[in-house]
């Protein structure tokens, strides 16, 4: 029996104010896979995530999540956990970690309803899963970058979802912390048996850990297993210029020429 398709894009085309953000994107994500959606800034990665969440509608083609159009998910929406970009969260707000994670249950609890025993149990289980139980009473402002990211993941896990969508989870992390974070995420995925979809521009690092990737540049440049997909041709199509890919230890790095610097070294 073939694995169940949990997210399906079929000739998906999305536009903002008559400007194409995604064009003719077709691929399937199966249950329990770990996908990396890769591409440069403005390539449509976040638009694809918003399409999965039902926040933007296709102009043509279709997208199905858990078998239905995202706009019609209804109660099934609780099966999707979403971790926004770090910059969209105010960490100066005086909240403890456990309180922030409880906010992730609000949709399940209902507006204005008090948390029940099962809600607190889900919160504590989520904190345990991200190895943050010891931080439950800590103010969110006193967390390191990596701890903040894990707390955001716990907030999404509090819904007990089947799918987890993460938007640039390492954007606020130091380069040295990034690889360890992806390694941890990969370990968490293997423990939880859920579908993870990760949006990132960290091509080299991400490709070590995910089971499949989609390379975007408004259209789908390539998709499949990282070793088969990440080659000179697909990278050049994705970045629209010549890209040098070289191995440095375990992590492939890319050199992408930019207008500002003829050869700007980017650790991806």
Q: How much of the sequence is in beta strands?
A: 25-35%
Q: How many strands in all?
A: 12
- What is the assigned CATH homologous superfamily? P-loop containing nucleotide triphosphate hydrolases
In the CATH scheme, the class would be Alpha Beta
- What CATH calls the topology is Rossmann fold
Radius of gyration: 19 Å
Largest sheet: 6 strands, mixed
What characteristic shape results from the CA principal axes?
globular
Number of helices: 9
Quaternary structure classification: single chain
Which sequence of strands runs across the widest sheet? 5-6-7-3-8-9
Q: Please provide the ordered H/E string of secondary-structure elements.
A: EEEHEEHHHHEHEHEEHHEEE
Q: Which residue ranges are poorly predicted, with pLDDT under 50 across at least 5 consecutive positions? A: 244-253, 255-268
What's the structural domain tally?
1
């Amino acid at each position: 029996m073939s694995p169940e398709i949990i997210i399906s894009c079929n000739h998906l085309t999305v536009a903002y104010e008559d400007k194409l953000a995604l064009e003719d994107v077709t691929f399937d994500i199966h249950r329990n896979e770990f996908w990396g959606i890769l591409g440069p800034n403005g390539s449509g990665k976040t638009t694809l995530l918003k399409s999965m969440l039902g926040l933007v509608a296709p102009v043509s083609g279709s997208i199905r999540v858990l078998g239905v159009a995202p706009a019609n998910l209804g109660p099934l929406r609780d099966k999707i956990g979403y971790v926004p970009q770090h910059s969209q969260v105010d960490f100066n707000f005086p909240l403890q970690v456990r309180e922030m994670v409880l906010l992730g249950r609000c949709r399940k609890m209902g507006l204005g309803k008090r948390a029940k025993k099962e809600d607190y149990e889900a919160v504590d289980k989520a904190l345990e899963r991200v190895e943050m139980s010891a931080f439950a009473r800590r103010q969110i402002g006193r967390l390191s970058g990596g701890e903040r990211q894990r707390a955001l993941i716990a907030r999404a896990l509090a819904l007990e979802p089947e799918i987890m969508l993460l938007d640039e989870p390492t954007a606020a992390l130091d380069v040295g912390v990034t690889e360890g974070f992806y390694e941890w995420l990969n370990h968490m995925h293997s423990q939880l048996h859920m579908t993870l979809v990760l949006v990132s521009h960290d091509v080299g690092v991400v490709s070590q850990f995910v089971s499949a990737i989609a390379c975007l540049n408004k259209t789908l440049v390539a998709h499949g297993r990282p070793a088969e997909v990440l080659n000179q041709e697909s990278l050049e199509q994705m970045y629209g210029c010549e890209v040098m890919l070289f191995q440095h230890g375990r992590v492939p790095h890319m050199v992408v020429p930019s207008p500002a610097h003829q050869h700007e070294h980017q650790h991806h």
